[in-house]
Specification:
The protein has nine helices and twelve strands. With about 300 residues, it is an alpha/beta fold. The radius of gyration is 32 Å and the shape is rod-shaped. The termini are far apart.
Length: about 300
């Protein structure tokens, strides 16, 4: 004789169908929502009622159905079971994403000199199944791409006066600045310099205007640098410096890749703090496992870069 306290074996499909019928008060609407026939929905409910000892869950009305007392008792239990199963599915999907999935990130140009490649190398050893796509751009453009959902993470800096506050910022490092001078420059033997010492120099910059570039620091010191050559690419800037055509500012992230016929002089700048570098993500959105893992790799790579 069966024990009345035995837990019946219930199909989760029965429970899902039961909740749809209870939600809509109609076999017909529930069937349309599920993409089933009305007879299939009716069979699922009949099977559930039989498994529960034949107790009716709905009163069949001329127009639609209504929960019985037994049906009202079952609703919260069915909702708990279905939600727990959905939760399990989400957690399993997260595990799959951590092992595979994709990562879309962007970075400003000098971050690619050391920070980004080191982080990617470490990340690939831990998440070899993740598909990585990378973009290069200026901080304002990267933040726009992040906001519109085209990037999961953007490596940005305080150069360019972009409004960083609208995003979640994960501090990576404070970047020192250097002046690159040719090896025969009168200041080449100095341990460090202040920017006003180079107020009369020809400068090589990525823009004809210093505003929103590293040369903002010169404006803060009360002089407007004379940009003699506009050169965007860092390797090319070094070539101009080595040829004696001017001097340029080099951020710490690019310092390791400077050619031997160029001398880097640390900038003493008590009035202006070092440039800050952040990993920016969308505010209020939890990080996907791949994004969180890459952020960890970025922090590790940043810790190995000289301040």
């Amino acid at each position: 004789m069966p024990n009345p306290h035995d837990v019946p074996g219930l199909s989760t499909t029965w429970l899902r169908v039961f909740l749809e019928v209870a939600r809509h008060g109609s076999f017909t609407v529930a069937a349309r929502t599920l993409g089933w026939t009305q007879s299939a929905v009716s069979r699922q409910i009949s099977s559930l009622e039989s498994a529960l000892g034949g107790v009716p869950l709905f009163d069949r009305l001329p127009r639609g159905v209504r929960l019985t007392d037994a049906g009202r008792v079952l609703v919260p239990h069915a909702e708990t079971v279905v939600e727990r199963l959905h939760g399990a599915g989400r957690e399993l999907a997260s595990l799959r994403e951590a092992a595979g999935g994709r990562l879309r990130f962007g970075a400003f140009a000098t971050a690619d000199a050391a920070l980004v490649p080191r982080a990617i190398a470490a990340f690939r050893t831990r998440r070899p199944g993740v598909r990585i796509s990378r973009e290069e751009g200026l901080t304002p453009a990267l933040l726009d791409r992040l906001s519109t959902g085209h990037l999961d993470l953007a490596i940005v800096s305080t150069t360019g006066r972009a409004p960083l506050e609208a995003h979640s910022l994960h501090h990576l490092l404070d970047e020192s600045l250097y002046v690159a001078v040719p090896a025969g420059h009168p200041l080449a033997a100095e341990a460090s310099v202040r920017l006003p010492q180079l107020a009369d120099a020809d400068w090589i910059s990525g823009s004809a205007r210093p505003e929103g570039t590293l040369l903002d620091a010169a404006l803060r010191h009360g002089f407007r640098p004379r940009v003699a050559h506009v050169v965007a690419e860092w390797t090319a800037k070094q070539g101009y410096v080595a040829a004696g055509l001017g001097v340029t500012l080099v951020p710490g992230l690019a310092a390791e890749s400077v050619r031997p016929d160029v001398v880097l002089l640390p900038v003493r700048d008590e009035e202006a703090p070092a440039r800050a570098v952040y990993a920016a993500t969308v505010r209020g959105r939890s990080l996907a496992p791949a994004t969180a893992a890459f952020l960890g790799a970025l922090r590790e790579a940043a810790a190995r870069i000289p301040g």
